[in-house]
Amino acid sequence: MISAAALLSGCATLSGGLALNQHEAPPPPPAPYYLRAKLDDPFAAIEQATRRLGATRQAPSSVGASDLWGRTIERFEFAQCNDFPKAEAWAKWFAERPEYMERVMTRARPWLYDIVTEIERRDLPGELALLPVVESAYDPFAYSHGRAAGTWQFVAATARSHGIEINDHYDGRRDVYVATRAALGYLKQLNQRFDGDWNLALAAYNGGQGRVGRAIARNQRAKRPTDWQSLALPRETKAYIPKLHGLACLFQQAETYGLNVPRWPYEPLVARVALPGPTDVVMFASQLGLTMDELLALNPGLNRHLTSPTGPHHLIVPVELSAKAERLVETWPEAGFVRYSRVRVASGDTLSTLAQRHDTTTEALKAHNGLKGDLIRVGQTLEIPTAVAATKASDYTDRYEELAGLQARLIPAKRIDHRVRPGESLWVIARRYRVSIDDLKRWNNLGQTHLIRPGQRLSVVLEPEAGPASVTAGATRYVVQTGDSLWAIARRHRIPLAELLEHNNLTPETVLQPGQTLRLGSSTSSAE
Prior knowledge:
- The protein has 528 residues and is mostly helical.
- It folds into 4 domains: 4-9 and 58-131 and 177-257, no CATH class; 270-337, no CATH class; 340-385, Membrane-bound Lytic Murein Transglycosylase D, Chain A; 404-526, Roll (Membrane-bound Lytic Murein Transglycosylase D, Chain A), CATH 3.10.350.
- The chain contains 25 helices and 8 strands.
- Strands 1-2 form a two-stranded antiparallel ribbon. A two-stranded antiparallel sheet has the order 3-4.
- Helix 10 (198-207) packs across helix 11 (209-221) and helix 10 crosses helix 12.
- The longest helix has 24 residues, at 98-121.
């Protein structure tokens, strides 16, 4: 019997790859971040909203071009469903797990119309609408062992090269609307580079276009075939392509596999609302009638309660609320939008002190004012975002805290509240957490010569060292040895320090004792 972790699973790629023959069954993909961290499913609220919205629409009587999945299946082009045992194995694997498929398709429902519309606009094959199932099980909070994030699983460098913004306020890899356009554009580019071969394009999307290009060149020099199965590619990549083929075959031959393909009207469930600039989304969503978990489920790219000072400025809302949201944009009080004011730099001002004073970041100030460095001069005029009116913001205190709590729990980057101890310097603290001194200064709005004092609290952002299924196989507990530190133990067992602290109810200041036993993970993570 498959575990609950597997039924709700979804991540970037399968670790270790597959070595399937006709008689082997694929292993389940690892569980997503939120489940591994023992959190509630962040999609529960949006699933309820989806069902509520969907209940008002009449579904087509049969699967066909008039419904969303039927229209998608009609665009299938390259799926190989015969004489491909590995694809058949995956099709069967998914078919035998209807609960898993129902959950994944429910998550996909808010986004599928937009994805299919973009696929049609770019004249791409319909199988690509299933790629987020392979990548993340349509989980925008998925974070892989390779530090890829979001529904389409972009690593930061690739994301930025395709126009996706990533900063302290916002990670566009988790913004399904933005990431969809970047991913489909990238896939079309890869398909053109590899002469229309979608299997090679998929291999490049998973393993890197340089790696695939070099593998092709090696085979050409050796006068060998250059189809994807003949190339020397990572096992993970060789497993990735059959999985998508198998999913496509499952939908294309639904009756054969016993899949109940849902009949959804070909119409949107969500809409994108353009905002005039940096916006307090807590205020806006509250006036719109959205709860904070619905806000985050529809706008998972947000890291804070403000849209990024440097953009993009939009909000995804249920389509039924889009007209109200547009009217709200037109009539919204100025306190709800973060307006920029002009200030003259005074003696002693630095970018970090100005950022701290006006509740923004040094990066935002530099970007908005066209600054290439950190130096500013007395008398210089800068544009700085004005703070939201305190009297207005105080009306939403509980919602701010609720959103911040959801973001802290669901977004893989963990913020640790470190209390400075006597004798500690920024160098010591940075070394302890394996972060840079510059990052410590940026996270805490500290100047270049700023001194810290005992008792002061500093925010430290910890990125996961590895993604789901990163705990050493079979290891659930560890006995502390002489000389061990929390960081060393976390690194040795390939788990985020924040998780080690959480599993053992520890703080970063905890002093370990030889012989002490630590839990390395939950029961779900050890089973992956």
